[in-house]
Amino acid sequence: MTSSRPARRFDWHNLAVRAASAIVLITGVVAVIWQGASPLGNAAFLLMLSLAVGMLAIEWGGMSAPATSGRVAAAIIVAVLVCLYLPSLRPEAWAWPAAWLCMVFGAAAAALAAGALRERPADAAFGVFYITAPILALAWLHASPNPISWIILLFAVTWSADICAFLVGNLLKGPKIWPRYSPNKTWAGFIGGLVGAVLGSMAVVWVTSHFHGAQLSVGFAVSVGLAGGLATMVGDLWESVLKRRYGVKDSGDLIPGHGGLLDRVDGLMFAALAVAGARLIHQIGWAQ
Questions:
Q1: Is the pLDDT of residue 279 over 60?
Q2: Does residue 189 form part of some domain?
Q3: Which of 79, 119, 110, 84 lies closest to 99, judged by CA?
Q4: How confident is the model over 192-207, as a mean pLDDT?
Q5: pTM assigned to the model
Q6: SS3 call for 185
């Protein structure tokens, strides 16, 4: 009977590097978000999303098509940016559904471009879907009433889930969730992440209801925290699966302690869709 591997010591140095990187990112993101829906705020938010699209596409191209990464990334960037800027250039009600439909055509165009380069068309098409969907969700949240409240809610849920999952998972350890693809993620971290996401959601809802008029109930805040926290950790696991498929450790080396931008925002990309869904439910009037 073989003995189990000794528990890994808590990496305080890596925590410090991750925390420093996160503080820099959070400061910049919050500064952009706090401009709200003003002309300057809209321009800054679109610029931030555009830069993110470029970096994510470059990392995706590097993972999925290393031999022609630049050209595949360029095709994905064009496809995603067309979808992103359509509602900004045409603010009519039909522009948002059109942007989602445009994503399908953009994926097809990227697939054709990849095929012409003798790369896997399905990988390029998936890259368009993978990047465009959360980018459109973020842009729609920012274009909705109370954009500061909803965007900060999204980031608070995501970051709370990430931080609590990392801390609880490293401190308590225990059984792994999916060791084949993500050997460091534990059930303790998963539960800690959910609790952190709920607490983060409740805190933001309480604050923003007083200053920005979000008017969300405690029950709805808990639901958003659970959905957003679950989406965050599913997104993190999904990126682990993708990296294993493409045989890479990190999507890039842009952010110290985290790897690439995709390594940092993998959970946020899924959580953006969850919070946008909650925003739609609230807008329809099914929840308060």
A1: yes
A2: yes
A3: 84
A4: 92
A5: 0.87
A6: strand
